[in-house]
Amino acid sequence: MKEAEYKAFYDRVGQSNGWDFSKLKVLTEGMQADIYEEVRQACKPSDLLLDIGTGGGEAVLALRDSALLLVGIDRSPGMIRTAKANLAKSGASNVRFVEMDAGQIDFPTQFFNLVTCRHAGFSARQVAKVLCQDGQFLTQQVAEGDKLNLKQAFGRGQSYGEPDGALLQRYKLELAEAGFSDIQVAEFDTAEYYRTSEDLIFLLKHTPIIPGFGQEKGDFEILRAFMEQNRTEKGIRTNAKRFRIRARMGLEPGGMRI
């Protein structure tokens, strides 16, 4: 999926659904990545938090009692409209959503105590710019090996054919070059069982896992065969592969930023 196609797809999904998959009936086995639970534990009541690629704002709104001010940014107008609608329903007074590109974060230098980013691209240098001294950055990303049996069945997919671990290594290098230290990594490969075919179809229609799903001839026949081959008593089996990076804005021994 080309950049322009992905942006149009993401904006369309944002307007119709946000980034909310809470209604999917899916069983997971194994340790799951959840950076927002880590954020909840790391937050202080006086902290300012920035969430990059906030989608429909669901995660930020769930954290509203953990920090003084929470700001979610997303480059998609559709996502931000959904996020603002979710904000109005929540009644939260300490949350803001702003349409903004992660490649050009327009906030004061060293403004935030924590910056988060889940399943969205980011610029390590932009994150470093807005993080305060000793501030923390947490990101959770989709690894190349995610939904691998699905991608193999279709012969195409998000990051399909790319070396597993390439994105992780790239981000580690970029964070180090931007001045981050204490870069900690955790990887997760969780079994997922989708209860019904409708649950799996919803996932494929609202994510770029299989680009253009349903638009190419034979897609639903491939999916039907996949579900027959991977159906178990627990549901239709695939996997969720993620990695988490936790990094701190580096300080020299005297307290100066690196």
TrEMBL record:
Q: Does the keyword RNA-binding apply?
A: no
The GO terms describing molecular function are:
methyltransferase activity
Under Pfam families, the record lists: Methyltransf_25
The Methyltransferase domain covers 50-124
User: InterPro entries, from UniProt?
Assistant: 23S_rRNA_MeTrnsfrase_RlmA, Methyltransf_25, SAM-dependent_MTases_sf
| Swiss-Prot/TrEMBL keywords | Methyltransferase, Transferase
| Example GO biological process | methylation
Recorded protein name is: Class I SAM-dependent methyltransferase
Origin organism is: Cohnella rhizosphaerae
